[in-house]
Amino acid sequence: MIRSTVECRLVLALALAACSAEWDGEESESRSARSLDSCATPQFADGAGPGTLVRCEGQLAKSFFYYDQCKLACGNPVKKPVEPVAFPADDEVGACCEAGASAEALAATCKSDCAHGACLGALLRFDELITDPTTTAPCGGLAGCKARVLQSLTHYKNFLAANFAACVQAVVADQLFPLGEPPCGPFAGCLKTGSLELHCEISGVYDDVVLEPVCEQALNQPPAAP
């Protein structure tokens, strides 16, 4: 918070005016926090809830999986697009909030639910890649190469599961989420320096479209602990 020492040395009336502006900012932040507490992101704060689940509209778009694909050597950056997901057409994203939640809180809750869904979707996609025989097809008959591809993807999946909250936070903040470094070394098949860039774009919140009249938590929840 910025304080103006010059203003605080002026006459009492001006000093009070300057300090009251700071107080209003603190009050605004407090009101915003209380407003978000009235929503499940993905759970309600203690003493809050239940709420009503309403529809969110938007998409997961402009998202990518980055990695360095080691062949004879590393240094082959790959930018692989993540398939866009529109909601509610392809998936469902909602805002579970108490009555009277502000428009800002509803939109933030939609983005939180979308972010949880995006990180859950990434976990599922890693599982699909690990079990899909075509994932290792570029390795040909090189068993070590195939093993390192699967080792890399398994590392990324496990890292994401163990740091799920950080993934959600990165998506909410529109930031890159690094996936750690797989222990496969600089050899053919290793997918090094992986990261996810996932963007949730919220275009509308429809509090008149009720998905559930009573909700205790958000639609998308973190994965269960192993």
Describe the protein:
The chain is α+β, with helices and mostly antiparallel strands and 226 residues long. It has one domain (38-215). The chain has five helices and six strands. Strands 1, 2, 3, 4, 5 and 6 form a six-stranded antiparallel sheet that branches. Helix 3 runs antiparallel to helix 4 (143-162), helix 3 packs across helix 5 and helix 4 (143-162) crosses helix 5 (164-172). The longest helix has 29 residues, at 103-131. The two termini are 42 Å apart. Mean pLDDT is 85; it is low at 1-33.
SSE blueprint and pairings:
Elements (H helix, E strand, L loop, with lengths): L4 H4 L3 H26 L13 E19 L7 E5 L3 E3 L6 E4 L5 H29 L11 H20 L1 H9 L4 E2 L12 E25 L11
Antiparallel strand pairs: 1-2, 1-3, 1-4, 1-6, 5-6
Distance between the termini: 42 Å
**Strand residues, percent:** 25-35%
| Radius of gyration of CA atoms, rounded to a whole number | 23 Å
Mean pLDDT: 85
Structural category: alpha+beta
Task: Describe the sheet with the most strands.
Answer: 6 strands, antiparallel
Note the total helix count.
5
Order of helices and strands: HHEEEEHHHEE
Low-confidence stretches: 1-33
* Structural domain count: 1
What is the helix content? 25-40%
- Basic shape: elongated
Count the E strands: 6
